[in-house]
C-alpha cells in the first residue's frame, strides 16, 4: 500500500511539473521573440536593413535557430516590423480623430514622425511594402484631419492634402539624416512646417 501510494504521489508530481513547464516554456518563447524584435529594430536602425539575421541573433544573445523558429526568413521578420509600424500609425490616427479643436492633424503628424524615428532602419522597405489599401487609408485619414483643422481655423484654408502628405514624406529625410537624435530633429522640422500652416491669428 505504501509503495502504491508513493508511486501515485510521484506520478502526480510529475504531471504537475509537466503542466507547469508548458506555460513557462511559452513565456520563455514569448520573451525570446520580443527580444529578437527589439534587437532587430536596434540593429536595422544602426546598420541599415541590409544587416544579417545572424548579427541580430548574436546581439540578442540567442541562437540563430531560435530566430528562425520565430521568423523563418529575414523577409518574414521585416514584414512583421512593417506590420507593427502600420499598426502604430493606425493607432495614432484613431487617437488623432478624437483630438479637440482641430489639433488632430498636427498630433497625427508628430506621432507618425516619432514612429518613423523609432523604426528608421525600416523606412525604405515601409514605403515599398506598405499595402495599397493601407496607403489609401492613411490618405483618407490625413484628408479628414486636414478638413477638421481647417474647419476649426487652426490650419490655413489654402493648405492642400498634397502639402500635408509631402510634409509626412519629408520627415523620412530628416529621420535618416546624420544626427544623434532623429526624433528631436523631426519634431523641430514639424515645428517650422506647422508654424507656416497656421493662420496668423493662431500663431504661437
UniProtKB/TrEMBL annotation:
One Pfam family in the UniProt entry: TetR_N
Lineage: Bacteria, Bacillati, Actinomycetota, Actinomycetes, Frankiales
Entry GO MF terms: DNA-binding transcription factor activity; transcription cis-regulatory region binding
InterPro entries: Homeodomain-like_sf, HTH-type_TetR-like_transc_reg, HTH_TetR, Tet_transcr_reg_TetR-rel_C_sf, TetR_SbtR-like_C
SUPFAM superfamilies linked to this entry: Homeodomain-like, Tetracyclin repressor-like, C-terminal domain
PANTHER family (alphabetical): HTH-TYPE TRANSCRIPTIONAL REGULATOR BETI (PTHR30055:SF234), HTH-TYPE TRANSCRIPTIONAL REGULATOR RUTR (PTHR30055)
Biased composition (Polar residues): 1-19
Region Disordered, annotated ranges: 1-25
Full protein name: TetR family transcriptional regulator
PROSITE patterns with a match to the protein in the record: HTH_TETR_2
Alphabetical keyword list: DNA-binding, Transcription, Transcription regulation
Domain called HTH tetR-type: residue spans: 30-89
DNA bind region: 52-71
